[in-house]
């Protein structure tokens, strides 16, 4: 009886793990689509050939707000080398004004989660959460593993080599 319970528990936990973390480094990244704050459409599929940083954040998340200047600095330095970035806010649609206020200081793309399709990235419950996709559409950084925050040295370590690949 105990071993049946343990087996059932392992199966349940395995199911939770795979549904919460749906992505896998080294495999094609799930497609993310979004209606950007400026009304334009974004799709990771349409920007293949570029390195893409996907960041999930919220205005009420202090660590998220702390890493945004590093993203902007890195983006400004590398946007002409094939870098795209999208920041997907988990704020409610009613808080759109707050999101726009924060994003006015940043030039990379942004969208509300409610205006995006990203189910392949799992249920977003931890913030900040960042994924990096290479020029071929392969996931190279799975945000579910490792430290949650991003800074310039980590961007240089992870993203710069991908930008140098042709």
Structure in words:
The protein is an alpha/beta fold. 34% of the residues lie in helices and 23% in strands. Strand 6 and strand 7 form a beta hairpin. The relative contact order is 0.22.
Which SSEs are present, and which pair or pack?
Elements: H1 2-20, E1 33-36, E2 41-43, E3 51-57, H2 62-78, E4 83-89, H3 96-103, E5 109-117, E6 129-133, E7 139-141, H4 152-164
Radius of gyration based on Cα positions: 17 Å
Estimate the mean pLDDT confidence: 87
In spatial order, strands of the major sheet run: 2-1-5-4-3-6-7
* Overall helicity: 25-40%
Distance between the terminal alpha carbons, to the nearest Å? 57 Å
Low-confidence spans: 2-20
Beta fraction: 15-25%
- Largest sheet, strands/sense/barrel: 7 strands, mixed
Total strand count, please? Answer: 7
Structural class: alpha/beta
Provide a short characterization of the protein structure:
Helices cover 34% and strands 23% of the residues.
Characteristics:
166 residues, alpha/beta, 34% helix
């Amino acid at each position: 009886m105990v071993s049946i319970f343990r087996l059932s528990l392992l199966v349940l936990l395995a199911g939770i793990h795979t549904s919460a973390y749906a992505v896998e480094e080294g495999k094609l990244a799930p497609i993310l689509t979004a209606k950007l704050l400026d009304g334009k459409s974004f799709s990771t599929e349409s920007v293949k050939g570029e390195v893409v940083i996907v960041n999930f954040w919220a205005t009420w998340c202090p660590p998220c707000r702390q890493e945004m200047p590093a993203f902007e600095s890195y983006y400004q330095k590398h946007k002409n080398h094939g870098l795209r970035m999208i920041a997907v806010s988990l704020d409610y649609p009613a808080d759109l004004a707050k999101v726009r206020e924060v994003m006015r200081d940043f030039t990379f793309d942004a969208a509300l989660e409610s205006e995006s399709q990203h189910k392949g990235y799992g249920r977003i419950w931890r913030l900040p959460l960042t994924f990096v996709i290479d020029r071929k559409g392969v996931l190279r950084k799975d945000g579910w593993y490792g430290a949650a925050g991003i800074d310039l040295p980590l961007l240089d370590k992870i993203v710069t080599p991908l930008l140098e690949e042709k």
